[in-house]
Amino acid sequence: MKASSPWWFEGLRFSCVGCGRCCRGEPGAIFFSRYEEMRIAYCLGLSLGEFRRGYVTGRWGLPSIDERWNGECLFYDPATARCRIYPTRPLQCRTWPFWPEILDTPESWRKASKMCPGMDQGVMHDGPEIKGILDSYVKYLGEMVN
Fold it and tell me: Residue 2 — pLDDT band, cuts 50, 70, 90?
């Protein structure tokens, strides 16, 4: 590892255990692109208008999947602890936990791992793989803002 490499460059373990904890908790934003919006609406058998009226809110000037009063994503099914749109979930969901704010410091990773039992377990993701995921997520967010 080079001295300028990020702290996580030697790799981090993560395997989703399907607990649904990343889909519930404190309120936040679940951003999606125009393409993802069309895929989700199609998956649900809805028109874009129906999807927007029933499932979308605005957060920080961008469309976001709405949440229930307790912070659960509307697509989280409490009975099964699963996502009802898993095959078409937004990139934001697919890149968890390799987000900039979680990879910022070892402490931020440890804090998130207390909520997520899949972190520090399972598959080892090496530095180049993590960097690729992180770069795609940052690019994705940038494209939505611009």
Answer: low
